[in-house]
Predict the structure.
Amino acid sequence: MIADNLKEVEERIRKAALAADRDPSDITLIAVSKTKPVPMLMEAYDEGIRVFGENKVQEIMDKYDEMPSDVSWHMIGHLQRNKVKYLIGKVKMIHSVDSLRLAEAIEAEAAKKDVVVPILLEVNVAEEDTKFGLPVNGVLPLVQQISAFPHLSVQGLMTIAPYVADPEENRPVFRQLKKLSVDIKEKNIDNIHMNVLSMGMTGDYEVAIQEGATMVRVGTGIFGARS
Ligand SMILES: *Cc1c(COP(=O)(O)O)cnc(C)c1O
């Protein structure tokens, strides 16, 4: 089942990219494996998947120990400052930085371990009350502050779009995130790259790709529904 699902998702990514005149290899599929057991992750691994997304620190730590060492782990969920220390050195990227205080905590831990941590800033584009993330007008001020942090490297932006019946409804959300990243990139701020746009989930990744996503986070579409 997972093998078939993966084939379908990969094919849809390829088609959406080509239809938007993009190179499919510019889009990274993150297999969102939260709540799913290691044998299911291994099925995806055996199909060639090496990039997994998780939203809980404890779950990343457990699966990190059980999965092969060539897996790249992406932290995509809300992160508490007191748990940052467990992630540094284990995750390839943190997608959910949404405050100066969290950025400072990551900087401090990365300095201790003498590593540079690639991060994305999470933006609550649709300004939903229920979601974490910066308001659109809070992104540039935070970028300017983080620019001075030697152990953080801002690679781009991430958003969790609203849950909608028709993915077209999220097109303006994705377009706005892309525009924000272009506006910031044009400012050529030290240490700020803006080459990554993490947007699009099972329900809307094709629209996100048409609007410039470079990472799509797909869970249900690969592993099936979560209970
Ligand atoms: C769970 C989750 C996903 C994947 O959602 P699906 O709809 O199952 O594809 C993507 N991003 C984040 C941040 C998530 O928490």
